[in-house]
Specification:
The strands form 2 sheets. A 5-stranded parallel sheet has the order 2-3-1-4-8, sandwiched between helices. Strands 6-5-7 form a 3-stranded antiparallel sheet. The chain starts with a strand and ends with a helix. It is built from 9 helices and 8 strands. By secondary structure, the protein is α/β, with parallel strands linked by helices. The chain has one domain: Rossmann fold. The structure holds adenosine monophosphate (AMP). It is an enzyme of class 2 (transferase). One of its GO terms (cellular component) is cytoplasm. Pathway: Purine metabolism; AMP biosynthesis via salvage pathway; AMP from ADP: step 1/1. Keywords: ATP-binding, Cytoplasm, Kinase, Nucleotide biosynthesis, Nucleotide-binding, Transferase.
Amino acid sequence: MRIVLVGPPGAGKGTQAAFLAKNLDIPHISTGDLFRANISQGTELGLKAKAFMDAGDLVPDEVTIGMAKDRMEQDDAVNGFLLDGFPRNVAQAEALDVVLKAEDMQLDAVLDLEVPEDEVVKRIAGRRICRNDSSHVFHVSYNAPKSEGVCDVCGGELYQRDDDSEETVRRRLEVYHTQTEPIIDYYRAQNLVVTISALGKVDEVTARAMDALKK
Ligand code: AMP
């Protein structure tokens, strides 16, 4: 299966993507994670991306599209993938169509996670992520780790992303509305969009998403 996950920052895309990719046995490809890995390794690509990410803006397409394409062309992705955070604007969606067409492939679904805006801000402000594995995500009140600052899964240190500050979150939401939301209409025209509510417990949302994808 080839799936695109869309939703505002804080919708739980990363959390859901990790579970869905596992259930569907396809790799979870997150452009945000790829950028963060490049930043922590100090690569040139990471240096280019960092200032845009810290400001809550999109990293330019010429950097992002090549990076996403390289990842989609790796061996583990031949039978499908779950894209989390890519595409994030119509130009990227068009570039993805070109990549897929060249391989005679198609998307199966675009899963749109819906969540009210005030909930988004609460979720992001309390979000804590494991330094060892970004799919280990906690929340200081909704999904608190057993021991403060320590990942329940692997014992790694939990941290708050630099771009999870309130000011940057507001900018990321604005970018989402102006640049990313238009891809939902782009994919609606291809009859690919399934919208589900991202409210509720993590496993409830995963079950909802799996049901929607089966249809
Ligand atoms: P995420 O982890 O998906 O929330 O992404 C964090 C940040 O990485 C975003 O706010 C952007 O600055 C950058 N980013 C991730 N994916 C993309 C993309 N497809 N296009 C441009 N920038 C991206």
